[in-house]
């Protein structure tokens, strides 16, 4: 009997702990309009017309339903920042979210915060853009002298204004730069 009672109490405590994570009650504040354009912890820019918020523990992108306990109004916001770090406060709302909740005059109001879904929003990788590589094989016949002559830059340069002197000679796997007549050995 004693073992059954302890098990029931433990199960009840686990259920209460799970429920307390789903729903939070505390004070909410809001960002001023002057915060528009500021970079948040998620890297997104803050805008006063967006329905966003800052929360300490929910992952970025989580949708939260915030209920104003004073008047019963509700709003759904998305987590894009971390905070608030003041004692007793659980959420910082954007200006538009605070306006929908009717808390602009008070500045700080008691709210209930609960996630809309318990699932995490998965990370979506950016598409990987790879350059196209041409794998066509071209034929090249090695001249009789055994040296491969490659023209590096056929356009005139600003230094000397001459074209065609930028020939590169490859012999025995080593590259030598020179003009048409002289070769380094």
Characterization of this structure:
- With 185 residues, the chain is of the alpha+beta class.
- Helices cover 15% and strands 27% of the residues.
- The chain is built from two helices and nine strands; from the N terminus they run αβββββαββββ.
- Strands 1-5-2-4-3-6 form a six-stranded mixed barrel. A three-stranded antiparallel beta sheet has the order 7-8-9, with no helix packed on it.
- The longest helix has 21 residues, at 2-22.
Can you describe this structure in just a few lines?
The protein has 185 residues and is of the alpha+beta class. It contains 2 helices and 9 strands; from the N terminus they run αβββββαββββ.
The tally of beta strands, per DSSP, is: 9
Order of helices and strands: HEEEEEHEEEE
Question: Percent helix among the residues?
Answer: 10-25%
Largest sheet: 6 strands, mixed, barrel
Question: Which class best fits the helix and strand makeup?
Answer: alpha+beta
Distance between the termini: 99 Å
Strand adjacency order, main sheet: 1-5-2-4-3-6
Strand percent estimate:
25-35%
Q: What is the number of helical segments per DSSP (H or I, 4+ residues)?
A: 2
Mass-distribution shape: elongated
Question: Uncertain runs with pLDDT below 50, 5 residues or more?
Answer: 15-20, 179-185
What is the arithmetic mean of pLDDT? 76
Oligomeric grouping of the chains: single chain
Rg: 34 Å
């Amino acid at each position: 009997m004693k073992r059954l009672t302890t098990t029931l109490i433990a199960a009840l405590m686990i259920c209460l702990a799970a429920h307390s994570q789903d729903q939070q009650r505390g004070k909410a504040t809001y960002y001023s309009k002057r915060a528009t354009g500021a970079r948040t912890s998620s890297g997104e820019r803050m805008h006063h017309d967006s329905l966003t918020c800052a929360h300490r523990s929910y992952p970025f992108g989580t949708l939260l339903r915030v209920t104003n306990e004073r008047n019963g109004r509700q709003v759904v916001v998305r987590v894009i920042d971390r905070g608030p770090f003041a004692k007793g406060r659980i959420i910082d709302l954007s200006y538009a979210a605070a306006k929908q909740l009717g808390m602009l005059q008070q500045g700080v109001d008691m709210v209930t915060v609960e996630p809309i879904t318990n699932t995490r929003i998965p990370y979506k990788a950016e598409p990987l853009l790879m350059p196209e590589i041409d794998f066509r094989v071209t034929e090249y016949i090695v001249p009789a002298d055994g040296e491969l002559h490659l023209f590096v830059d056929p356009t005139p340069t600003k230094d000397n204004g001459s074209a065609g002197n930028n020939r590169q000679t490859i012999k025995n796997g080593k590259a030598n730069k020179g003009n048409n007549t002289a070769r380094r050995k």
